[in-house]
Structures are given as C-alpha cells and as structure tokens.
Amino acid sequence: MRYPVIVDYFETKHATVIKKNKNEYITYSGFSTSHVWMLKEGVVKSSLILKDGREFNVAYLQKGDIVSLLREDNIAEPLAPYNVRVETETAYLYQVNRIDFWQDVYKDRDLQREVYRFYRKELEDAILKIRDFSMSGKKEALYTILLRFARKFGVPYQEGILIDFVITNEELAKFTGISTRNSVNRMLHQLKEKDIIDMVQSKIYIKNIQFLEENVVK
C-alpha cells in the first residue's frame, strides 16, 4: 500500500462509494469536477486525447491509487486533466468533495505529509517517463512499458513473470506512442520468436525479463 494514511482517511471518513462498470468514464479531460476519488477495487485507465485525435494512455491505476489529481487550490470545480475509464468489469471508488478533502488536509499533519509524498512520487514518475520515452526508440519504449506492467500486475509464473491483466496490442500502442497496433504486433512476434515472451490466456508471459532490462534506457 503506497499511501496508507490517505487510504485510512477515505476508509474512516465514511466516503461515498460509487460503482462504475467497464468502459464507463469517471472524468473527462477538460470537464469540471468537484470530487477526489481513490480506487477501492478494480482497475481504471487515465489517458489524454491528442490534437490529432489519437489517444495517449498515461497509466493504469489499481486499488489504493488516487484517481484524480488533488489540486491544492480554492477552485471548487477545477478542470480534470485526464479521461479516466474503467478497465475491469466493475470498479468501486471512494468519493469525497474536494473542498472538504483539503480542509481536512490542512487540519491533519500526517495527512499533509502523505499528500505531499504523493505529489513528489507523481513528479518523479513523470520525469522518469519523459526520460524513458524521449531517449527510446520504438522497441525500447515497448520494453519499458512491459517492465512497468510487470511491476504493476506481475505474478510469478513458471520460470518468469505473468502480467496478470489482459492488455491488448492497441492499448500497448497507446501507452508507447507507437502509431499502430500492427507495429506492436510485429515487435511482440519478434520477442516470441526469441523466446523472450509468450501469451497465456491472452496475457503476456515474460520468460526472460533480463533481456528487457538490458535493452532499455537506464
């Protein structure tokens, strides 16, 4: 659990729990929102729509992750920075009014520290992503995102790691900035031929994670 104090706040605050079904949106980029959400159960995806209409995926979020940026300001309904869509059959989210949330943050020193830790971690992650993708070619970008998903969804499987979440080639393309899923298909096929990965029930099984680690930007 990355942010136990924040998790405890949502659980003890008796926050409203809302249910969303697969492909339903929680927020839309550019639309006003008056709440802060934390994921109680399920997986959601944050993404941006680029000027040319393409979608660029930002992250998958899991249980205990804060879904919306907290935004420390006095605007009651700031604009949401991302589209956030449910990726599992259902998702449950804690929901609190953002003004009430910040009033509580100002009163609780431990909660303040945890919120600032959240911001520092988000900034560190953003810097690493910029480094990874600005200095990587297409293959390196794909290897980087596979390693990231192995850390997020990975479970031990045989001699390697199974990414225990179905991620389509189209979604991989949107995470890496690769223009088409056909390009991702080709690169994944090459990895399968080299016995680096395999597919298990539509999930990616990484058989040789060392190969990926040795071929990404460090």
From TrEMBL:
Keywords: Activator, DNA-binding, Transcription, Transcription regulation. The keyword ATP-binding does not apply. One of its GO terms (molecular function) is DNA binding. Residues 136-210 form the HTH crp-type domain. Gene3D superfamilies: Jelly Rolls, Winged helix-like DNA-binding domain superfamily/Winged helix DNA-binding domain. One of its GO terms (cellular component) is cytosol. InterPro entries: cNMP-bd_dom, cNMP-bd_dom_sf, Env_Response_Regulators, HTH_CRP, RmlC-like_jellyroll, WH-like_DNA-bd_sf, WH_DNA-bd_sf. Pfam families: HTH_Crp_2. SUPFAM superfamilies: cAMP-binding domain-like, Winged helix' DNA-binding domain. The keyword DNA-binding applies. This is Crp/Fnr family transcriptional regulator. It comes from Sporolactobacillus laevolacticus DSM 442. The lineage of its organism: Bacteria, Bacillati, Bacillota, Bacilli, Bacillales.
